[in-house]
Design goal:
This protein has two domains: about 160 residues, D-Maltodextrin-Binding Protein, domain 2 (3-Layer(aba) Sandwich), CATH 3.40.190; about 110 residues, Periplasmic binding protein-like II (D-Maltodextrin-Binding Protein, domain 2, 3-Layer(aba) Sandwich), CATH 3.40.190.10. The protein is globular and about 65 Å long. Strands 1, 2, 3, 4, 5, 6, 7, 8, 9 and 10 form a ten-stranded mixed β-sheet that branches. The N and C termini lie far apart (about 70 Å). It is of the alpha/beta class. Helix 7 links the parallel strand 5 and strand 6. Helix 3 crosses helix 9, helix 3 crosses helix 10 and helix 5 packs across helix 12.
Length: about 325
C-alpha cells in the first residue's frame, strides 16, 4: 500500500536511515573518546579528569583519551570542543572558568549557553589558600598585614586567567582591601612548581591540585575558600572567618558539543554515574575535599547559570578585569 503512495527509492532511503540511526546509537561508542582538559597536565582538573576517564572507559568499553589543551583561561580547550562534531566522541571537562569567562572576556569564540550540551556535574569543593612549607605566613591575618605593609609585593599564582584561583585572589584583594600581584600559569602543575620554588608566594588552588603536596608536607594550608569549614581539611579555618562574605567554590562538569544526540548524552551520563562510584575515585575525591555531585544534565545547566549570574555581579561591582 505504501509503495503505491511513495516511490520505492524513498521507502528504501527512509528504512535505511531509521535502521542505521537505531544501530548507531546501539553501537555507541565504537571507538575511543577524547576528553579535553583545558589545563596543563598535573593539576587538579587533569587528575580528576584522568580518574573519571578511567572509570568511564570501563563502563563504556572504549578508551577515554585525555587531551590537554591549556590557554586563554580555558577558552582554547572549550573552543576545541565547541567546533567538534556533535557525535559524543569529543567531550570537555569544564570548570569554574566556564561560568565566569562571559563576564571577564568581551568576546568569546563560542556561545557559552548555546555551544555545549551539558552531561553531568561531577564534583564540587573549596579552594585552598596554600603556601610552601617554608613560608613565614601562617594565617590570613598575617598575609593581610604583609600586603598592607608592602602593597603589590606579595604574589599569588593561578592555573590561568579567569580560573577559580584567579577570582579567589581577586575577591581577597577587593574584600580585604589589599594589593596582591596575580601571576597566571597554563595550569595548576606549573603554578605549584613555581610556588614550591619560591617564585610566587601564595596559591588559591583547587583542593584536588594542592592536596597531594599538602599530604607530603611540601605545602601548608592557610584557609579554605568555602563559606563553611571543609570536613576534608580539619582544623583549617575559612577565609571568611577573617574576611566576612568571602566564598569561592570550584566545580567540575562534563560537556559535549551542542547538538549531541540525547541518546548519546544518556549513555555518557550513565557511564559517569558508574565511574564516580568506583572506590578509587570516591577515595580520591573525598580525600581532596570534593563532594561528588552527579545530577541530571539539566541540573548542571541550572547550576552553571546560577554561577554565571553570581559572578557577573561580583566581577562588575568589584571591577575585576581580565589580565
Amino acid at each position: 500500500m505504501l509503495s503505491k503512495i511513495l516511490p520505492l527509492w524513498l521507502i528504501a532511503f527512509v528504512t535505511f536511515f531509521v535502521f542505521n540511526g537505531q544501530q548507531s546509537f546501539a553501537a555507541y561508542p565504537d571507538k575511543a573518546i577524547r576528553l579535553i582538559v583545558p589545563f596543563a597536565p598535573g593539576g587538579g582538573t587533569d587528575q580528576i579528569s584522568r580518574a573519571l576517564g578511567a572509570g568511564m572507559a570501563k563502563a563504556l568499553g572504549q578508551p577515554v583519551v585525555i587531551e590537554n589543551k591549556p590557554g586563554a583561561g580555558t577558552v582554547i580547550g572549550m573552543d576545541t570542543v565547541a567546533r567538534s562534531a556533535a557525535d559524543g566522541y569529543t567531550l570537555v571537562m569544564a570548570t569554574f572558568a566556564h561560568a565566569v569567562n562571559p563576564s571577564l572576556q568581551l568576546k568569546l569564540p563560542y556561545d557559552n549557553d548555546r555551544s555545549f550540551d551539558p552531561i553531568a556535574l561531577v564534583a564540587r569543593g573549596p579552594n585552598v589558600l596554600a603556601v610552601r612549607s617554608e613560608s613565614p605566613y601562617r594565617t590570613v591575618e598575617a598575609i593581610i598585614a604583609a600586603a598592607q605593609a608592602n602593597p603589590g609585593v606579595l604574589t599569588y599564582a593561578s592555573q590561568g586567567n579567569g580560573t577559580s584561583a584567579h577570582l579567589a585572589g581577586e575577591m581577597f584583594i577587593n574584600l580585604a582591601k589589599v594589593e596582591l600581584t596575580h601571576v597566571p600559569y597554563r595550569g595548576a602543575g606549573p603554578a605549584m612548581t613555581d610556588l614550591l620554588g619560591g617564585q610566587v608566594d601564595l596559591f588559591f588552588g583547587t583542593a584536588a591540585a594542592v592536596s597531594p603536596l599538602m599530604a607530603s608536607g611540601k605545602l601548608r594550608a592557610i584557609a579554605v575558600t568555602s563559606a563553611l569549614p571543609s570536613p576534608a581539611f580539619k582544623d583549617v579555618p575559612t577565609v571568611s572567618a577573617t574576611i566576612p562574605d568571602y566564598a569561592v567554590e570550584s566545580w567540575y562538569g562534563l560537556y559535549a558539543p551542542a547538538g549531541t544526540p540525547k541518546e548519546v548524552i544518556s549513555i555518557l551520563h550513565s557511564a559517569i554515574a558508574q565511574a564516580v562510584k568506583a572506590p578509587d575515585f570516591v577515595k580520591k575525591v573525598e580525600h581532596e575535599g570534593l563532594t561528588i555531585a552527579v545530577g541530571s544534565p539539566g541540573e548542571l545547566q541550572m547550576y552553571v547559570q546560577g554561577e554565571q549570574a553570581r559572578w557577573k555581579k561580583i566581577i562588575t561591582e568589584n571591577k575585576i578585569q581580565f589580565q
